[in-house]
Design goal:
The structure is a homodimer. Chain A is mostly helical. Chain A has eight helices and two strands. Chain A binds a DNA duplex through α2 and α3.
DNA sequence: ATGCCCCTATTCTATCATGGAATAGGTAAA
DNA sequence: TTTACCTATTCCATGATAGAATAGGGGCAT
C-alpha cells in the first residue's frame, strides 16, 4: 500500500455513525473535523463508497424520500469493523511525512470520536518515526554527499520535527482528548 | 498545477543532453543523480515524453540500430527551452513540503548540470517558505484548537525544519556546487 | 411572478496516471 | 544449453480525478 487513500478514514466516519455520501462530504469540508487534513472531490467519496461496498466492508441501503433526493445510507459490516480496528491499532504506522500528517491525524480523530484511547496510537506513531529517524541517521553516515544526501538530510530534519511535534502531543494528552 | 509531475525535470535532463527514454530511466535510477528524489516507473517516463512532444516542448527522431532496439532521441524545442527556464527561474516556487523536497532539489540538480547559478534558486525557495511560515503563524494565532490546529502546527514545524535545512544549504554554497 | 442561484444527493464521462507484463534481439555466465 | 539479464519500448487493464450533468425544491431579489 503506497498511495494515500481515505478508505479507512471513511470507514471510521461510518463507524461513528451510519452515513450517506453527502454527509461524508460535509465531514471532509468541516474545518473542525477533517477539513484541513484531506482535500477530496465529491466524486471521489462516492468512488470510495463503491469500492468499500464491493470489498464487503460496508453495506448500503437506499433511504427513500419525497422531499429530497434518495440517499444510500452505509454502515459497517463485521469485516469492515475488523479492517477499521486493524488500521486504528496498526502496530507499525508509516513514518512517511505525508502519512503522518494525514493518516495519523485521521486515526487520532476517528479514535477520539469512537472513544478509543488515543495515547497508544500516539506512542506507536512515535516509535516508528524514531526507528525511521535512526535508520536515516545511519544511512547519512555512510552516504556520500550528493543529491541523495541532501534529500535524506531533509527527510531526517522533517522526521525530527515530526517527533518534536508528537512529543508536544504527548505532553498534553488532555488537549488531544479535548480537541475535536 | 497541483500534482507533482516530473515533466520539467525531464525537460531539464534533455536540456543537459539529448536523450532517449532508457537513458532517462537510468538517470532516475542513479542514486547519485535523481534516484533518491523521484520514484518512477518505466512507462511513466515514456508517457511524459509523449506528452512533452505533443505539447511541442521536445522533438524526437528515431535512431536506427542493428545491434540494439531502435531508440528515439529527444531534444528541446525553443518553446521547451523557454518552459524550462520559466521553471528554473520560477519566482514563487511552491512551499509545499513535498514540492520542496522533490521540485526544489530537482531544480538544484538541473541548474547545477546546466552551469546555472543555484544561489538565486535557493534564495527564492527560502523566500516563499518564509512567507508561508509567516502566514501559518498568523493563522495559528486565530485558529481554535482542533484537528485543523494540530495539522497546521505540524505543517509549520515542517516548514521551519525546511528553512533550517535551506539555511545550511546557503551557508555552504560551495557544497551545493560541488555536489552531483 | 419571474428568473436565478443555491442546497441536497448522486452519477456520468472523459482524461490521466500507474504498474506490470509483453516484446524482442543480444550477450554473458553457468 | 539453458538461464538470465541488458537494452528499449509498447501495451493493457485498472484506477484515480476533475468537472459537468441531473433533478427537484427552496429562498431571494427585481
Amino acid at each position: 500500500m503506497s498511495t494515500l487513500t481515505p478508505d479507512e478514514t471513511i470507514l471510521g466516519l461510518i463507524a461513528i455513525q451510519t452515513s450517506h455520501g453527502y454527509e461524508l462530504i460535509e465531514a471532509f469540508r468541516d474545518v473542525s473535523a477533517l477539513g484541513e487534513i484531506w482535500k477530496m472531490s465529491t466524486s471521489q467519496i462516492y468512488a470510495v463508497l463503491k469500492r468499500l461496498e464491493r470489498q464487503g466492508l460496508i453495506t448500503g441501503r437506499i433511504e427513500e424520500s419525497e422531499t429530497a433526493p434518495n440517499r444510500t445510507e452505509y454502515c459497517l459490516t463485521a469485516t469492515g469493523k475488523r479492517r477499521l480496528d486493524d488500521w486504528l491499532y496498526d502496530p507499525q504506522p508509516s513514518a512517511s511525512i505525508r502519512r503522518v500528517r494525514v493518516e495519523f491525524l485521521s486515526r487520532l480523530y476517528i479514535a477520539r470520536q469512537l472513544n478509543i484511547p488515543t495515547i497508544p496510537i500516539v506512542l506507536r506513531q512515535r516509535a516508528t518515526c524514531e526507528t525511521e529517524r535512526d535508520r536515516l541517521r545511519d544511512l547519512l553516515e555512510h552516504q556520500p554527499p550528493g543529491m541523495g544526501y541532501l534529500a535524506h538530510e531533509l527527510v531526517l530534519a522533517q522526521l525530527e520535527a515530526v517527533l518534536r511535534w508528537i512529543a508536544r502531543c504527548e505532553l498534553v494528552p488532555k488537549d488531544i482528548e479535548d480537541i475535536t
